[in-house]
Amino acid sequence: MYDFSSYYDRRRNGSSKWLKMNALNESPKADVIPMTTADMDFPTCPAIIQAIQDYVATEVLGYSNATDSYLQSVQNFFKEMHHYTVEKEWIITTPGIVPALSTSVQAFTDENDGIIVMSPVYTPFYDVIRMQNRRIEECALLLQNNRYEIDFDSLASLAEKPDVKMLMLCSPHNPGGRIWTEAELQKIIDIALTYDLLIVSDEIHADIILDGHTHRVLPTVDKRIEDQSIICTAASKTFNIAGLQCSNIFISNPILRQQFIDANLALGIERANVLGMVATEAAYNDCRDWLEEMKQVIETNQDLVTDFFESLSPKFKVMKQEASFLAWIDYEELAIDDQTFNDFLIHDCDFYINSGEMYGEASRYFFRINVGLPTEKLKENLDRFKIGMEQRFMTALSV
Ligand SMILES: Cc1ncc(COP(=O)(O)O)c(C=O)c1O
Asked: Is 202 in the pocket of ligand 1 (CB under 6 A)?
């Protein structure tokens, strides 16, 4: 049994999530864990701590490339967890997935080209496209029965445009929590093959699969897409080591791989953080039992959030999360102005979330909660929210 109930005040180590809380509210209530940025407030798996300690005790902390045993740990993990065979030479280590998304934009598109994203989506998808003067082509997800569905007609008509070169796919999807089914992925692949569209598939959330769902690494659905895709993976979300900045990008096509490496060189990116690789290797080799326990805590927390909002008011719609530790909640029916609601959450409830508009205009009346925190602390946050809502918005809550 691992420890999923201890937590630390992470302001002292500069945690982005905790400092953001203080930026929003000068004097937050003591002992509140914020639920914004997607890292978890659980102690690190002991095998990762041990591996880092052993490494720093005996090794020089110089420039280091991926070792053979590191690459093998990545291969084994993907073979065993996802039934996907990755060749060693396909694996490029980078200091994160967002850098790899950005490099892909640079390497495989030109200025003013179009890049498709399925909105709403993780904010850096927009940033890396817009800030490199490419055009965002939004394929808006359809909200049907409180679940996101892909608009394949829209996807095909965007893909058909001659200057649309890439689809940046979030699989599983953040913030909607959807695991795209084999049939959905096949349709995406068919469109990509028809219109010669490169797929950059961000699969960072692929290991935290809930309630018996199955995630498919893109090329396991159809091998033909392997040479026309960039698969972005990392141990960072799965094992809560995002601060160590290490990810693994799989590029089977040697021409695309060289273009990616060249673009990285132009940006001054040559390798990942050495301790990130040490931690990733330990995580992939020795922390799978930790992952299984962590997923149980996340399932408990996801259920808690769903039950809580549904019993507070049926006007809240909590999307069923099939993967990861984020919850996505629609409050549009409460008819509360979003600015008022966001201020209220911070100042009346000490309830720190990401507001929906960060992920796209259509989700202005959503908010995202990170449930990667001890269950008791999540309950405390929800209790404060309930008290605040009943004091201020009782009428809005009632049906
Ligand atoms: C879909 C997605 N991609 C990438 C990242 C971050 O990747 P990295 O920290 O490796 O740059 C996140 C973090 O929340 C994410 O949700």
From this structure: yes
Q: Average pLDDT for residues 276-298, to the nearest whole number?
A: 98
pLDDT tens across 157-208, in order? Answer: 999 999 999 999 999 999 999 999 999 999 999 999 999 999 999 999 999 9
Domain end call among 286, 319, 352 = 286
Mention every residue, 6+ apart, whose C-beta is less than 8 A from residue 165: 108, 109, 110, 113, 114, 115, 197, 198
Of ligand 1's listed atoms, the one at least distance from the Cα of 96 is: 10
Which range marks the domain in which residue 102 is found? Answer: 48-286
Query: Taking each helix axis from N to C terminus, what angle separates 288-312 and 375-392, rounded to the nearest 10 degrees?
Result: 20
Do 32 and 21 contact (CB within 8 A), yes or no? Answer: yes
Distance CA(175)–CA(364), nearest Å, equals 13
Q: How far is the CA of 335 from the centre of ligand 1 (A)?
A: 32
**Which atom of ligand 1 has the smallest separation from the CA of 99?**
11
Q: Which residue has the higher pLDDT, 399 or 281?
A: 281
Q: Which of 17, 37, 97 to mutate to test the pocket of ligand 1 (most atoms within 8 A of CB)?
A: 97
Q: pTM for the complete prediction? A: 0.97
242 CB near ligand 1 (under 6 Å)? yes
* Beta strands at 229-233 and 247-250: parallel, antiparallel or unpaired: antiparallel
Domain boundary among 286, 318, 353: 286
**Residue 39 CB less than 6 A away from ligand 1:** no
